[in-house]
Write a structure and sequence with these properties.
By secondary structure, the protein is an alpha+beta fold. It has 16 helices and 13 strands. The strands form 2 sheets. A 7-stranded antiparallel sheet has the order 10-9-8-7-13-12-11, sandwiched between helices. A 6-stranded mixed sheet has the order 1-3-2-6-4-5. Helix 3 packs across helix 7, helix 4 packs across helix 6 and helix 9 runs antiparallel to helix 11. The longest helix is centred in the middle third of the chain and has 114 residues. The chain starts with a strand and ends with a helix.
């Protein structure tokens, strides 16, 4: 991102107009006009105003002098009097970097912009190898960087971007392809699900500040015996390093032991509270002012942390607390919304499955209904047939009754005629009709017929009537059953009650219990010790190291520190700070 100069300025001299190009960790401030009498402070304040930075005491402007040595721009000295190299004929190049590091980033950094600039600079230092980082910590830091820059884990990252998050020195140590590295990175990245970008950056700083080389700026020096060493200036104190080992100072002096800092005749002298001198000389005179500026500024910040905070700092912290609380509420709201979305997605899937099941039940019910309708139609035909049969039976009964009455009338007429003829006839005179009737009567009696007497005739008629009534009753019963069956079948077609409505309350209860259990499990997982996770990962990848890899001196020093129980920067410094001040000064001068 390139930001042009925001206002035109005219040089007070007659020479060519000069410009400054300042590169920050996330922007380029291009062509800032410079006055010929500007000091470093005026340019620094201009840059801070442009980017909106308020915690200015952590930062500085760095340039490369004509000897290609990085130096810090002196705030109280004119820019034209300092050995700043030019880019072209009229542009001066500067880097806007962290100059003074805090002891605890979480407690001291206030602004989001300040934290973000720290994050970007530490990330760049680790990727470039300037800040040594062991493999397990590098993977953890990469997971926080991915969370801060891209949010929750996704599968859209390209394996070619691996060196944007892992140092090449770490990748070269192990026999792993880019895809396998990404697989491990995604596993750690997924542990940061739901973490906000600001929180991920702060987690990055928490891990990075435990690295042995965190916040240390190294300068080559000579001791009293003109032995070349490295002077390491940090927020905790001043360390002296031998050779290429930048992890273990031999010895280390805390700022608490140092009372004053002097520079005279190209020599530095750090006065201790025991009235002892820690003396050394810079390897190159061009870095004398940078060393002095760093020592004085870092010592002042060390003392200021242990005093009452300024009113401006208190106000900034109060505003930051309110902003963080607001951001925390927003983050919790986003988490709740995400959980609600996940719950709704699960419920939607369940409802879709229930809908599909209901549709299948509807199809089956429709098939049953169609079968029942066919059966009802068939039953209707049978009912009509049985009704017709019942009507025919009733007609037959009526006909039989009519025939019976006719027969009874005829029989009574014959009986009356026979009685009349018997009383009025002569016994000697044969009667054809009476003999015929007697003969017929005798023949019926011999055959066991019902007309052998008047009682037998009535019994026959009663039996016939009962048989006809039973037949008619059976026909009516069959017809009524056929007529009633469609109504009974229609009643049987009523669908069963929907089980979804009955189980809704039970499902809601199960969902609530599942959400509570999920929240509890996530809390337990996030409460695991970070050091245990790193140790486990270290064991996992230890067997994947290349056989032909040659460890650097810093790698060997870190392994030695781990074996000695120095697992972070503070324990390493405490180990190097053992002994009296006098004995450590003697150790430094004796080399």
């Amino acid at each position: 991102r390139v930001i042009m100069g925001l206002w035109p300025l005219v040089s007070s001299g007659y020479g060519r107009q000069m410009y400054a190009r300042v590169t920050t960790m996330d922007a380029d401030l291009d062509r800032i006009p410079l006055e010929s009498d500007w000091t470093g402070r005026e340019l620094f304040d201009t840059v801070c105003r442009i980017i909106g930075l308020r915690e200015i005491w952590y930062f500085g402007l760095q340039y490369t002098n004509k000897k290609e040595i990085p130096c810090w721009l002196q705030m109280d000295k004119k820019i034209s009097k300092q050995d700043v190299s030019k880019s072209g004929e009229s542009t001066l190049q500067f880097l806007f970097l962290v100059k003074f590091f805090p002891e605890e980033a979480e407690d001291e950094l206030i602004q989001d912009l300040t934290r973000h600039l720290f994050f970007l600079q530490l990330k760049e230092s680790i990727l470039s190898g300037e800040l040594h980082c062991q493999p397990e910590a590098a993977v953890l830091l990469a997971s926080f960087a991915l969370q801060a820059m891209y949010g929750d884990c996704n599968d859209e990252m390209e394996a070619e971007l691996l060196d944007k998050f892992l140092p090449k020195s770490v990748i070269a140590q192990f026999d792993l392809s880019n895809d396998l590295w990404w697989e491990r990175l995604r596993k750690w990245w997924s542990n940061n699900l739901g973490m906000a970008s600001e929180e991920a950056e702060m987690e990055y700083l928490r891990v990075a500040q435990d690295l042995e080389m965190y916040g240390i700026q190294y300068y080559p020096i000579w001791n009293k015996r003109n032995t070349k060493m490295l002077l390491g200036i940090s927020a905790m104190g001043v360390g002296v390093y031998e050779g290429n080992n930048k992890l273990n100072p031999r010895p280390f002096f805390s700022w608490n032991e140092i009372k004053k800092i002097h520079f005279k005749n190209k020599k530095f002298s750090l006065k201790t509270k025991d009235h002892l001198d820690i003396s050394f000389q810079a390897f190159d005179a061009s870095i004398n002012m940078s060393i002095l500026d760093l020592c004085v500024g870092t010592h002042n910040l060390y003392l200021r942390r242990r005093q009452e905070e300024l009113l401006e700092v208190q106000q900034m912290k109060a505003q930051a607390v309110q902003l963080r609380l607001k951001r925390k509420e927003e983050n919790e709201r986003r988490v709740m919304e995400r959980e609600e979305r996940e719950t709704l997605k699960r419920e939607l899937v369940e409802k879709e499955m229930e809908l599909a099941d209901a549709q299948m039940r509807i199809i089956r019910t429709e098939d049953k209904l169609k079968n029942l309708e066919d059966a009802a139609m068939h039953s209707g035909h049978e009912t009509a047939y049985l009704s017709q049969r019942a009507s025919e039976a009733e007609a037959e009964c009526i006909r039989l009754k009519h025939s019976q009455r006719q027969l009874e009338d005829a029989m009574r007429s014959e009986v009356d005629l026979y009685s009349h003829m018997r009383n009025s006839s002569n016994e000697n005179r044969p009667q054809y009709t009476s003999h015929l009737m007697l003969n017929e009567t005798n023949s019926w009696s011999m055959n066991g017929g019902p007309l052998s007497a008047t009682v037998s005739y009535h019994q026959l008629m009663r039996s016939a009537e009962e048989e006809q009534h039973e037949q008619i009753k059976s026909l009516h019963s069959l017809a009524n059953s056929a007529l009633l069956s469609p109504h009974m079948q229609a009643a049987s077609l009523q669908p069963p009650p929907d089980p979804v409505a009955q189980s809704m309350a039970t499902q809601d209860l199960h969902v609530i219990k599942a959400n509570l259990e999920s929240t509890r499990m996530q809390y337990n997982e996030r409460s695991k010790s970070l050091k245990d996770r790193l140790s486990e990962f270290r064991v996992q990848i230890e067997g994947l190291k290349r056989d032909d890899y040659v460890p650097s001196e810093n790698d060997l020093a870190h392994e030695q520190n781990v074996q000695n129980g120095c697992i972070d920067r503070l324990t390493t410094l405490r180990m190097s700070c053992r002994g009296t001040t006098k004995s450590r000064i003697h150790e430094m001068d004796a080399k």
